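Put briefly, the fold is written as integer tokens. The lines below illustrate.
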Amino acid sequence: MSLFEPYTLPVSGVTLPNRLVLAPMTTYSGTPEGQISPGEVALLQRRAAGGFGTVITAACYVDRDGQAFINQWGCDNDDKLDSLRKAASAIKAEGAIAILQIHDGGRMADPKVLREPAPRSASAIAAERQGYLEPRAMTAAEVEKSIADFAAAAKRAAVAGFDGVEIHGANTYLIQQFFSPHSNRRDDEWGGDLERRLRYPITLAKAVRAAVGDQFIVGYRFSPEEIENPGITFDDTLVLVDRLADCRLDYLHISLGNYAAGSMRDPQSTQRLSTLVIEKLAGRVPLMAVGGIETVEQAELPLQDGAELVALGRVALWEPDWPNKVKAGRTDLRQALPAKDGDIICTLPRPLYESIIQRAGWVKIAAE
């Protein structure tokens, strides 16, 4: 199986030009009103032109109260349609498939973007990280509205010209907060034991598919484990992916910091988690893999393991032409982000570039 072999998704029937996907990455580069900026449009279009067959956008909030980042863009109402159209059009103009990642930050909202004194989540349990506030527990009516907001955002994405959406159920945000025994201590139908903690993500996934029909791509991103105790275990996740496999999804996207690493909860276990997910899925849903992939050999490993798609994140920031260069057999792949004028050279929004430069260790920076 080649990185450049097309792939037809099982439910929507959409054929992806190749197996390479631009991973969704936060840019901090929208407007304060939640609109996309010209710099972010240019970022997306450059990667599509660089050969990524599928481009997933940065997380886009479905509810203003679920905004998580400064200058995050939104898809929460129809006044965002022109903004969404700019992104979809830029990606599709280069022949790539355009996927909008739909998102709610829950308790992981940056306090600077909150309109209320506290964010909301499954329960009033603070994250075990500095800088985040204790949330308030959502009411049952708010839970129902949240699911409806995701479905409405998916429909809005279709109207704006996207080919699909990715439900952001990973990286400790709201959907994961309902699944996690750390953040979900509810005693109603939306929380408690594993079965009730599954209800929110499964109901939401089904609602999104129902809202857009079968001709539209619907994917779901998940994190396989949490380090907290109590927290999501890999056994929990195997139950989740088994249930998600019955939700008529086009793919599942496993969110990993290092694809080749083993369990973070059990340091003695070195088996790659994706291989166990692939075994559980048994071909029912394609798997998209991600996690520190920079080289051709690293990109081919997930395909050898049985995954169907490979997402590249940070390497695409400093080498937007990675797929085209690899396909052409070129060896001049950039190895790090330029320390000077990297935003111009690599087509990055200035706010994102400045954030990268100021945050040591996040992205490789070339020596000046």
